[in-house]
What we know:
Structural class: alpha+beta
Membrane topology: Multi-pass membrane protein
Helix content: 40-55%
Strand content: 25-35%
Keywords: Cell membrane, Hydrolase, Membrane, Metal-binding, Metalloprotease, Protease, Stress response, Transmembrane, Transmembrane helix, Zinc
GO molecular function, one term: metalloendopeptidase activity
Oligomer: single chain
Number of helices: 3
Number of strands: 3
CATH class: Alpha Beta
Organism: Salmonella enterica I
Protein name: Heat shock protein
Amino acid sequence: MPQVAIYHAPDINAFATGARRDASLVAVSTGLLQNMSPDEAEAVIAHEISHIANGDMVTMTLIQGGG
């Protein structure tokens, strides 16, 4: 399971990062938490976790020439 962090920003945003599934993080903005319902926020977090489960961060790094 990834770590979860909340960062202070008015924007509604969330992202997943990490080089491996077992070393990953989902970050969620305070703007997202303040402006979305709990069900909406849960759906966004689930979406970000799916990126980790699919290995999308590694794929994007390779596509962008980082590997």
